[in-house]
Amino acid sequence: MTEQSGQNPALDNLLSESRTFPPSAEFAAQANATAEMYTTADADREAFWATQAEQLHWETSWSKVLDWSEAPFAKWFVGGKLNVAYNCADRHVAAGNGDRVAIHWEGEPGDSRTITYADLQREVSRTANAFASLGLTKGDRVAIYMQMIPETVFTMLACARLGLTHSVVFAGFSSEALRSRIDDAQAKAVITVDGQFRRGKVAPLKPAVDEAVAQTPSVEKVVVVKRGENDVAWTEGRDIWWHDLVDHQSDQHTAEAHDAEHPLYILYTSGTTGKPKGILHTSGGYLTQAAYTHRNVFDLKPESDVYWCTADIGWVTGHSYIVYGPLANGATQVIYEGTPNSPHEARHWEIVQKYGVTIYYTAPTLIRTFMKWGDHLPAEYDLSSLRVLGSVGEPINPEAWMWFREHVGRNQAPIVDTWWQTETGAIMISPLPGVTATKPGSAQRPLPGISAKVVDDTGEQVGPGGGGYLVLDKPWPGMLRGIWGDPERYRDTYWSRFGAQGYYFAGDGAKYDEDGDVWLLGRVDDVMNVSGHRISTTEVESALVSHPTVAEAAVVGATDPTTGQGIVAFVILRGGVAEDEAKGTEAITALRNHVATEIGPIAKPRQIMVVPELPKTRSGKIMRRLLRDVAENRQVGDVTTLADSSVMDLISSGLQSDK
Ligand code: 6R9
């Protein structure tokens, strides 16, 4: 904190990128978004958001767009009343679009189900009647522990309809993770399944619920969908089958309007340390921003597009871009239950071809996995329907972006790299297709209506080419309304670092390029310090991925007696690369030199290890903390939020046998 502003950037700017891809004239001519939106929004931010909110159905209009008098606790559309579920189903039926497909659901074993908006309205009404019959009333919390099946969507919307606040927990988290989340929210009911399909097998889920609920007295009812058909233990009086409860209910239900600030859901983020934070989202502002971003960032044409977001519903991306945004917009979408390599590694391309998917929104981790599986797979399918591609969850390395463009987008479909967080509720920084000339690896510009800055240690905005911290300097409609039950932690975590300026601190490193476009550089906790240079993990990883043999890379700073920290890299090879050769001294030296040429000798990894997998969370984020343990020869720490906890054994045993 002693440095003068602008003189000591929080991050060195190492990598540069000169490729740009302007939109085609045809795309621009039909695009939803326009360049004027930036100026309109800048001229009067609140009026701009009011116009967006008017796209929804409100039972009662608001009296004030934004009340920021109790900052950092925002109120948007004060006094307004709406029903979120009505907006996501009934409204489209009322407008004459009941026959439009809302969901093409594809089960992992190959079964499928088509749900129109009229079906959705009926199913949600039935589910709402069922939940009401259990005695659940407005304000109660409901935990949802289910995979990607239609009932998960019905459950979320039925909760929204009744004003129940849902808390979705990743199906696959342990019973302990479920227990602590149920307990924190004091949930009254748990909605779950007997089991889920993963890679062709049934993984039981109910046992984890039984274990958790044994220790959570707040839970009165457990509703179980039959999906895996596996045997389950049963607690009479508490457990009830979904089909026994829901099927006989009336499919008519009148939706009551709730306050714009009524709590819609809690979603827990694990964070790097400590107890998970229950991020709270409310109704009117959240739905406004989810729908607006979905319409403009993906250029959605509800009459003709087939949209597919590959995220899990247990991640915020599933909440905003499978459930609330697309359904509020009346979109037709694909929901897929299973893993991308079941029964084969081209399952996604098969689904794109089968449904004629036009908009495909996925994560860098999956794109890099596709690179590893090989270029030939997307080439075997007809992907010509794709017209917009999106990425979210991590910085996308420029080479992964180029691979996505070439092999999936046929060098035509614009790519939107969308930066946001569980806390922001919806997309904040992203190109607009048809407006922005895109650049591989950059999220580019805050959306119209959104304001973000890259600042130095003192909170001063850095200039072009400068690196620092990403902050959000103005409130936005979808912003979190706090951490469930812990207002102090909310202030401490997000508002104290740049408290003097009143900025929200996102926890990410970022830089501007010479054009003023924003590049995300990874979590500031992961920044490496090598001989006094602050180097972002993202830039070194992108340099490694730009080598033809590397599909994926993760780097960490490990304590080093001479340089403070030394860079240790873990790399996964691309499909078809001979492993023995790539592990040889010569190949490793070549890779180290490649990084030096791409971004400078200071970033040359001290050590590079070839590994079969990387440790990732369920949303695909690399857990560098665990790799630091390996690099510094420590016992590996807590692995409970890993998608696959065996990965760390795989890495450690592989490294042992190489010695
Ligand atoms: C939506 C989501 C948030 C963190 C965020 C950042 C990283 C997400 C990104 C990105 C670079 C992007 N992140 N999108 N980094 N470019 N396009 O991922 O929410 O799970 O809460 O994670 O993810 O580090 O701070 P969440």
TrEMBL record:
<feature type="binding site">
    <location>
        <position position="545"/>
    </location>
    <ligand>
        <name>Mg(2+)</name>
    </ligand>
</feature>
<dbReference type="GO" id="GO:0005524">
    <property type="term" value="F:ATP binding"/>
</dbReference>
<feature type="binding site">
    <location>
        <position position="550"/>
    </location>
    <ligand>
        <name>Mg(2+)</name>
    </ligand>
</feature>
<dbReference type="InterPro" id="IPR011904">
    <property type="entry name" value="Ac_CoA_lig"/>
</dbReference>
<feature type="binding site">
    <location>
        <position position="341"/>
    </location>
    <ligand>
        <name>CoA</name>
    </ligand>
</feature>
<dbReference type="InterPro" id="IPR000873">
    <property type="entry name" value="AMP-dep_synth/lig_dom"/>
</dbReference>
<dbReference type="InterPro" id="IPR020845">
    <property type="entry name" value="AMP-binding_CS"/>
</dbReference>
<feature type="binding site">
    <location>
        <begin position="417"/>
        <end position="422"/>
    </location>
    <ligand>
        <name>ATP</name>
    </ligand>
</feature>
<dbReference type="Pfam" id="PF16177">
    <property type="entry name" value="ACAS_N"/>
</dbReference>
<dbReference type="GO" id="GO:0005829">
    <property type="term" value="C:cytosol"/>
</dbReference>
<keyword id="KW-0479">Metal-binding</keyword>
<keyword id="KW-0547">Nucleotide-binding</keyword>
<dbReference type="GO" id="GO:0019427">
    <property type="term" value="P:acetyl-CoA biosynthetic process from acetate"/>
</dbReference>
<comment type="function">
    <text>Catalyzes the conversion of acetate into acetyl-CoA (AcCoA), an essential intermediate at the junction of anabolic and catabolic pathways. AcsA undergoes a two-step reaction. In the first half reaction, AcsA combines acetate with ATP to form acetyl-adenylate (AcAMP) intermediate. In the second half reaction, it can then transfer the acetyl group from AcAMP to the sulfhydryl group of CoA, forming the product AcCoA.</text>
</comment>
<dbReference type="Pfam" id="PF00501">
    <property type="entry name" value="AMP-binding"/>
</dbReference>
<feature type="binding site">
    <location>
        <position position="534"/>
    </location>
    <ligand>
        <name>ATP</name>
    </ligand>
</feature>
<feature type="domain" description="AMP-dependent synthetase/ligase">
    <location>
        <begin position="92"/>
        <end position="484"/>
    </location>
</feature>
<feature type="modified residue" description="N6-acetyllysine">
    <location>
        <position position="621"/>
    </location>
</feature>
<protein>
    <recommendedName>
        <fullName>Acetyl-coenzyme A synthetase</fullName>
        <ecNumber>6.2.1.1</ecNumber>
    </recommendedName>
</protein>
<feature type="binding site">
    <location>
        <position position="547"/>
    </location>
    <ligand>
        <name>Mg(2+)</name>
    </ligand>
</feature>
<feature type="binding site">
    <location>
        <position position="531"/>
    </location>
    <ligand>
        <name>CoA</name>
    </ligand>
</feature>
<dbReference type="InterPro" id="IPR032387">
    <property type="entry name" value="ACAS_N"/>
</dbReference>
<feature type="binding site">
    <location>
        <begin position="393"/>
        <end position="395"/>
    </location>
    <ligand>
        <name>ATP</name>
    </ligand>
</feature>
<feature type="binding site">
    <location>
        <begin position="198"/>
        <end position="201"/>
    </location>
    <ligand>
        <name>CoA</name>
    </ligand>
</feature>
<keyword id="KW-0436">Ligase</keyword>
<keyword id="KW-0007">Acetylation</keyword>
<dbReference type="InterPro" id="IPR025110">
    <property type="entry name" value="AMP-bd_C"/>
</dbReference>
<keyword id="KW-0460">Magnesium</keyword>
<feature type="binding site">
    <location>
        <position position="508"/>
    </location>
    <ligand>
        <name>ATP</name>
    </ligand>
</feature>
<feature type="binding site">
    <location>
        <position position="523"/>
    </location>
    <ligand>
        <name>ATP</name>
    </ligand>
</feature>
<comment type="similarity">
    <text>Belongs to the ATP-dependent AMP-binding enzyme family.</text>
</comment>
<feature type="domain" description="Acetyl-coenzyme A synthetase N-terminal">
    <location>
        <begin position="35"/>
        <end position="88"/>
    </location>
</feature>
<dbReference type="GO" id="GO:0046872">
    <property type="term" value="F:metal ion binding"/>
</dbReference>
<feature type="binding site">
    <location>
        <position position="317"/>
    </location>
    <ligand>
        <name>CoA</name>
    </ligand>
</feature>
<dbReference type="InterPro" id="IPR042099">
    <property type="entry name" value="ANL_N_sf"/>
</dbReference>
<dbReference type="GO" id="GO:0016208">
    <property type="term" value="F:AMP binding"/>
</dbReference>
<dbReference type="Pfam" id="PF13193">
    <property type="entry name" value="AMP-binding_C"/>
</dbReference>
<dbReference type="InterPro" id="IPR045851">
    <property type="entry name" value="AMP-bd_C_sf"/>
</dbReference>
<keyword id="KW-0067">ATP-binding</keyword>
<dbReference type="GO" id="GO:0003987">
    <property type="term" value="F:acetate-CoA ligase activity"/>
</dbReference>
<feature type="domain" description="AMP-binding enzyme C-terminal">
    <location>
        <begin position="539"/>
        <end position="621"/>
    </location>
</feature>
